[in-house]
Amino acid sequence: MLRRRLLAVGLALAIAAGAAQAAPAPVAGADQIVARTLPNGLKVVVWPDRDIPNVAMYIWYRVGSRNERPGITGIAHYFEHMMFNGTRTRAQGEFDRVMEASGGSNNAYTSADVTVYQNWFPASAMPVIFELEADRMRNLQFDPKVVESERGVVQSERRTRVDDDNLGTLLEQMQATAYVAHPYQIPTIGWPSDIENWKVEDLQAFYGQYYAPNNAVMFVVGAVEPDAVFALADRYLAPLQAQPAPPPVTTKEPPQLGERRFKVIRDAQTPLLAMAWHAAAAPERESRVMEVLLAILGAGDSSRLHQRLVEREQAAVQVGSQLDAGIDPGLAWAFAIVPPGGDVTKTERLIDEEIARLAKDGPTAAELAKARNQALAGFWRGLETIDGKAQALGTYEVFHGDYRKLFDAAAIYEGITADDVRNAAATVLRAENRTVGILEPRPAADAASTGGAP
Fold this sequence. Notes:
17 helices; 5-stranded mixed β-sheet; globular
């Protein structure tokens, strides 16, 4: 448990008064990480952590909705479902049965930039998991009945998350409006007509192009010996053939030259307001500054937007903020749920006033310390578990270009100043650089005539 205690000491140092002036605490166990790239291009990164006799294995494929085009949107997310089905050597459902029989569990997620497969299992099951992953990396079967079954699952997921969800609808329209050129405009779940019309040939071509060892990185964290991990990688993964490199995404979003606005009319109880500004990519220091800025602006009950809009003015019942920082420049977001019958114009004006105040005066010393320390606390907490370590390694290897940059993160957060935050508010959170989306409840008479809820 020594590593956990060292991490706890690092967290305590980070949140102590004056922590920004102190040298960042080292990441315990970082000197034990070993990485190796197989001849076929698959990089394997191993971080021994023997606190518990378990292992987290994360396989990051460099493919997401960013790599799609009209006609096949949503196909990257679709593979998140398909990859748990049968292969040329294993029957339908056997992947999960074998893993669970070995004491393991799994999950996966897809974003605009990546598709990540997560396995958790006892260290004794490692050979079985390696064999399973090698099999589905090259031998996935496209049984027509399974293809249609998973298509139905994705269609149902889209209806739940987007079509029948007011916030999901608004955010999808925001993304499509904020980007005019870059494929970040594509919803990760895909457009309905594309989900309906993928052909098996589309799936096979996509799989062959992106599910290749040279387009993936594997992270193994837990009660392992690096030499044993690399021996299994040599046995099961090295024989897989590299494929031609996927085409790079070269489209750059042009600078936004003026505010974009749209309105959505839906059967809803409350109005929704969303704002999104073009911001930096994940590797840039500006993204760490924006994280701190958005925490001051909209994260938690002590944030400026909550105190002003929810507590004092009752112009919102809930507010929030987030940063989407990807391989390419992303979006900084602010949200507000307006009370039923509330004045969206007033809510927007109050948000603008708080942004203007932050751009003019910057944050207070207390606000900056709290937001910076929250970021540091989240960083250290994430490294307390084997799955947190695997996620952090993948994030920095894929988005920042080198997993070793993870160990500079604490110092970057600690070095953020009030002037950094003020400058970011002034240069990024400008009206000319934003998209504003408003979801308005359908008028009662219209809702009644269409059979909708009032």
